[in-house]
Amino acid sequence: MRRLASAPEALVGLGILAALTVMALAASMLFPGDPLAIKGAPLLPPFQDWSLPLGTDRLGRDVLAELFHGARASLAVGLAAAAAAIAVGAVVGTLAGFAGGIVDEALMRITDAFQTVPSFLLALAFVSVVGPSLTVVVIAIALSAWTGPARVARAEVLSIRERDFVAGARVIGMHPLEIALREVLPNALPPVLALSSVIVASAILIEAALSFLGLGDPNRVTWGGMIAEGRTVLRSAPFLSIVPGIALVLTVLGVYLAGEGVVEGTAVRKGLS
Amino acid sequence: MSDPLLAVSGLTKRFRRSGTTVIAADNISLSISGGETLALAGPSGSGKSTIARLILRLIEPDAGRVDFDGGDFLALHGAALRAKRARLQMVFQDPLAALNPRATVARVLDDPLRIHGLASRGERPDRIATLLERVGLSPDLAGRHLHEISGGQRQRVAIARAIATKPSLIVLDEAVSALDVSVRGQILELLLDLQRTERIAYLFVSHDLGVVRAFAHRVILLEGGRIAEQGDARAVIDNPQSTIGKALVAAVPRLTRTQDRS
Ligand SMILES: Nc1ncnc2c1ncn2[C@@H]1O[C@H](COP(=O)(O)OP(=O)(O)O)[C@@H](O)[C@H]1O
Ligand SMILES: [Mg+2]
Q1: What is the pLDDT of residues A207-253, one digit of tens each?
Q2: Longest Cα pair distance anywhere in chain A, in angstroms?
Q3: Which of A131, A146, A249, B38 could lock onto A85 through a cystine, CB 3.0 to 4.6 A?
Q4: Residue B255 near residue B236 (C-beta atoms within 8 A)
Q5: For chain A, percent helix, then strand, then coil, each to nearest 5?
């Protein structure tokens, strides 16, 4: 923690993430009720009416309320998708690396196949077929993001499986599946977790892009959806796109900076010990 | 005489690495009776660990036969092999490397009891305490992490894990080589005591002929994957016949000195 604090970028990143978390948690307290409800005259510019600080959109909805509720969707989707991608990737990579032979061959061919399709297209195709909802969006993003963790986990497992404690587990008669998941996988996790900031950041962007194309959950406010809404009045009310756009950029930046700081912190600590 | 506990014949293993082939075990035959200690000695790279790992089915042989506990051990697979492993255990040189680095002492001892169904979940803490006491450790250590205890204590934990399933044979691959001389003596005492009370046989892999002479009943000297010489441990080490045996004995000053005196 102290080492983390000594890196100013990491502090900025953590600060942004903390603010975002507060926004997401406080959304329904500060802006109770449906953020999609109409609160005033349409297209009120920001800083005119202090009960609607960031103004209203095309339909007269409170932009600030939408922004807060959108933080919740972005954060939830980003974290859930990244967690799912890392879990699936770590398990697939561990099984491939530990089993070797045809199992490895088959799992890695599947990984290749997923990796050759651009991740956004894959997510797009999945949501178009299954239909938009928060869960589907999470699965779609995870589907396109698990290959990185799988490769990293496999590479790590290839070296771990030669270690004596794996031989020791076999000697006491432990089942190979238990050896892979309980003994090997946790020891292969650190480099996989180091990928999480990049995955969270890209998950948030993919979610925004899907919402922008109208493939997000229609019953939730999302930043991507807000940008799409604003696009139709881009000339007359550019703030409707700019405000959520800035929020998105800051969030991705925050996740990335904080992630780098954590990785660097642990790397330094490893180097010292 | 009754059948030996372990009978190995014609065991052969070749490793191919970057074009060249190493015969790490070349037509090895040996046997161990219940309650007996057989030492495998020889210089580094002579194939000691390879033979130990072949017998434990950690690697598979190119040829040969292993009979253990009255059956063809190489014929076992899957669940049958895992069940039989309870009878054939191993202690490694470095317990920190051979046990999950994240584990606590209790977890290390819980695994064999759970896997072989030797005690219900509720009984296991008691069994773990008994095991710790059996190897001369306080049951209070159960909650500690492996990196929080000393090297000697760790090797005692490794021994406790090996005896948890009441095996008839334990392979000790350089199990005392990394320990300080005083700790080494205590661990060897513990192993001898276990052998006396539980009639456990040992396959004792070591490059240290001094320890082999004191600890083993019989010895096999290896060179380049082959058996160079074998026989009663004291007889072989006090009067080696093979070139490698003479060279190994000459390399241990305290052995040549005792020989001169006698
Ligand atoms: N997995 C392996 N791959 C290739 N060569 C190996 C492997 N394991 C052992 N060897 C080789 O086999 C020979 C015997 O090694 P080992 O059994 O470890 O000897 P020891 O335990 O007596 O020091 C050495 O030449 C070693 O390099
Ligand atoms: Mg060795």
Answers
A1: 889 988 988 888 888 898 899 888 888 888 889 999 999 999 999 89
A2: 74
A3: A146
A4: no
A5: 75, 0, 25
- Report the relative pairing of strands B6-17 and B63-68 from DSSP bridges: antiparallel
State CA B117 to chain mean position distance: 24
Q: How far apart are CA A184 and CA A163, in angstroms?
A: 10
Question: Could you give the CA distance from residue B30 to residue B70 in angstroms, rounded to a whole number?
Answer: 15
Spell out the domain ranges in chain B.
Answer: 95-166
At A113, is the secondary structure helix, strand, or coil? helix
Test mutation, A161, A165, A174, A273, chain B, max B CBs within 10 A: A165
Give residue-wise pLDDT tens across range B124-165: 999 999 999 999 999 999 999 998 999 999 999 999 999 999
Report H helices in chain A.
2-6, 8-30, 63-99, 101-116, 119-130, 134-145, 147-160, 164-171, 176-178, 185-193, 196-212, 223-231, 239-272
Q: Which of A151, A163, A155 is nearest to A88 (CA)?
A: A151
Closest CA to B52 of B220, B244, B229, B213: B220
* Atom number in ligand 1 closest to CA B53: 17
Report residue A212 as tokens: 């922008």
In a 10 Å sphere around its CB, with 0-12 CB exposed, 13-18 middle and 19+ buried, how is residue B78 labelled?
A: exposed
Q: Which CATH code fits A75-217?
A: 1.10.3720.10
Contact A172 B112 (CB under 8 A): yes
Show the 3-state SS of A233-248: CCCCCCHHHHHHHHHH
Secondary structure of residue A56 in the 3-state scheme: strand
By C-alpha distance, the chain A residue nearest B163 is: A172
Domain boundaries of chain A, sorted by first residue: 75-217
Q: Report ipTM for this prediction.
A: 0.91
Q: Do A173 and B53 touch (CB under 8 A)?
A: no
B74: alpha, beta or left? (left if phi > 0; alpha if psi -120 to 50)? alpha
Contacts of A187 in chain B (CB under 8 A): 100-102
Q: Is the pLDDT of residue A273 over 50?
A: no
Structure tokens at A220: 């939730």
Instruction: Tell me the β-bridge partners of B16.
Output: B21
CA gap A44, A46 in Å, rounded: 7
**The whole model's pTM is what?**
0.83
Asked if A174 has any chain B CB less than 8 Å from its own CB, the reply is: yes
Q: Which residues line ligand 1 (CB under 6 A)?
A: B 15, 17, 22, 24, 42, 44-50
Task: Give the C-alpha separation, A229 to A241, whole Å.
Answer: 8
